[in-house]
Amino acid sequence: MLLPKRNTRKLTRLVTRERRPVNVVGVDFISTQATKYLLNQDEIEINCMKLRIRPYFSPIKINKCRQCFKHDHFTSQCTSSQLRFRCGQHHSLQEGCSNEIKYFSCQQHHYSGHSSCPVVQQKRKQLYKQAKIQFSQLLIKQQKDNFIYNSSTFPSVSPLSQEINSKLQ
Known about the structure:
The chain is an alpha+beta fold. The chain has two domains: 5-52, no CATH class; 62-145, no CATH class. The chain contains three helices and four strands; from the N terminus they run ββαββαα. The strands form two sheets. The protein has a two-stranded antiparallel sheet. A two-stranded antiparallel ribbon has the order 3-4. It is flat.
């Protein structure tokens, strides 16, 4: 199946760190209908290349204040004074920091926001759970929009079916 250009906003061929192209293309669609249609296909043809179609879910982005390095607000909302990124302490930013690397929230030896940090892992788990709930709610809403009950177009229950249903209850 060919990808109609009118349904796409942007095509991006992904490459490795060495700038070698890989057999993966990122596609931004104009409408959800185009997205749904293509996700139901097995493969797609772009510039004479046949590619398998799979949905992509972007990684959860964790915001971090650049002033106090906490994950529950933005820098513009921060009321704390500037901390050092390396040690999490208050001291002059002009001079170099020779303190040991330690994130003040978990007291482990890494910079703030490191992926191995239990604070970051907990925040990521929480955000992932929220995203999953939001996605589920969106799917439910879309399904409700697809199925509209109209008693005038829905066939009535036959007397025999009514009798059977009443005996089963």
